[in-house]
Amino acid sequence: MKKFFFLSLGALVIFFALVLPNHSGMLKLSSLNRWPLELPVLLLCMIAFGRRAWVVWALALVLVAVTFMKLADIGMFAAYNRTFNPILDASLINAGISLLSDSIGTPLTYLLIAGVIVAMVLWLFALVHSLRVWAGLEMPNVARIGAVIGAFGFGGWAVADAGHHLEFWKFERSPPGTAWTSRLAFKRAAAMRATAIDLAQFSEAAQNDIYADATNLMDGLDGHDVILIYIESYGRASFDNALYAPTHMATLESYEPAIADAGFAMRSGWLTSPTAGGQSWLAHGSLASGLWTSDNGRYTAMLASGHKWLFHFAQDAGYRTATVMPAITMAWPESSKMGFELVIPATEIPYKGERFNWVTMPDQFTLATYPSLLPDDPRPDFLQIALISSHAPWVPVPDMVAWEGVGDGAIFNEMAARGPTPRELWKNRDDIREAYRKAVDYSLNATLSHVARLGDQAPLVFIIGDHQAAGFVAGSDNMDVPVHMIGPPGLVALIESWGWSEGLIPQPDGPVRRMDSFRNDFIDAFSGGTQVVEVQDE
Fold first, then answer.
1. DSSP 400-429
2. Fewer CB atoms inside 10 Å of the end CB: C or N, the chain?
3. Residues 92-110 pLDDT 10s
């Protein structure tokens, strides 16, 4: 009876490893209804070959790797609405740890990491022990031969199911049971192989650029300053989701008269971001480079290719290029490949106030301060500003203050001390969504108020959402983001062919283009005498 108990317990442990879902939406009791075809294969393999220790450890390590992959998928679906790809996503671990540390505190973060490591080690030993129990069954040789035959039989059954669902072949009905975990592992391996091929092709394509040797670019700007302002996590949800649309659309509409009175014209449209839930740099890279940097592998390949960003062309056209990055708190060597002459990270922005958890400083302070950080230069400016007050965890949310009272930022200290803490807020999804609504609205107020004050300088301003918030916040899987163009009427008229809506509210059915189209569209619209040298494939 005791032996039967341990055999059953061992089989149950392996069963859980095989039926564990890879999406939080599937974490329910109905997931236990699956009959994993891999289970009899593993148990019979243990009876047949399990006396070899390396077989036990090899299979246990495979099951741990599969468990980790499923858990990583759950996290990636929650944050970015996609599966985990080891080739592309290893670099996100540090970013995730940093965000978690700012949300729940450094000690608790490292305690959580240690807990995960200990849990995975314990899981490994639980699987090893479970497999060993079956390997230790005393069986006559004929029974072990039968186990080999049975393993091959169930293995063929699993292959039949996997091939049916992967559409290598089709049966009239799906075979009983499921080899779902094997299918998942196969698809992930295929995805990794496809990623490697895609990166090679992408790197080659990045070498070809129809504008690389073009002349007379951006002469249509007539020397006006250009400012690209990214608003973090500002997506189509601000217009489509009833939780946010009334607030955000009312804010946009309320600024239209003041911006018009400042002498600006306004147009708004849609762009499709390559990311959602985070990884803003992928959106920045796609928009400015003209390449679809949909993952970190492509982003790295793009930087290594020497492909010219919009800012390189602006330099060639006689502009001083700069980027204001209040989220950058460490070395950022890759910025040297983006076409910026001047990089202003958080450490060079003289904010003396308290941090807003992950957010280093309020957007209003960034916008009030950046002009004084630009050295005197006779050239016009081509600037990028990446705002961060609407970055998760969305608490606390600052209040707008009088622009002349911003000072050194100490005025924001009381706001930075407000509760709830991120740990308290993130216990309730409705509270998270409410905080997100307020944070985006604050960023819109700060940005539009700042732009309305620029009337005398007559720059050309683009206000761009970098990506949607995570799916449970945005309420949809849509990847579109709004973009608003504000500037002198003569310049705004040059984008007539883009089909953007007048004002600050883009039409719901307006044209949508991917972010990587923006670089070329911008060059085409504002380069009256462009001469393009066509790149011929050999």
1. P--GGG-TTSGGGHHHHT-S--HHHHTT-H
2. C
3. 676 667 767 766 777 888 8
d(CA 477, CA 77): 11
Give CA 268 to chain center in angstroms: 23
Q: How far is CA 230 from the centre of its chain?
A: 15
Neighbours of 240 (CB within 10 A): 15
pTM of the model: 0.72
Q: How far apart are CA 15 and CA 177, in angstroms?
A: 13
| Residue 63: C-alpha distances to residues 33, 73, 188, 194 (Å) | 20, 15, 14, 23
Other CB atoms within 10 Å distance of the CB of residue 185: 18
Secondary structure letter of residue 361 according to DSSP:
S
Q: Are 55 and 45 in contact (CB under 8 A)?
A: yes
Long-range contacts of 97-105, Cβ-Cβ distance < 8 Å, separation of 24 or more: 98/358, 99/358, 99/392, 99/393, 102/357, 102/358, 102/393, 102/422, 103/357, 103/358, 103/392, 103/393, 103/422, 103/423, 103/426, 104/422, 104/423, 105/423
Q: What is the pLDDT of residues 114-138, one digit of tens each?
A: 888 999 999 999 999 999 988 888 8
Q: Are 422 and 357 in contact (CB under 8 A)?
A: yes
What is the chain's length? 538
3-state secondary structure 145-158: HHHHHHHHHHHHHH
Q: What is the distance between the alpha carbons of residues 18 and 2, in angstroms, rounded to a whole number?
A: 25
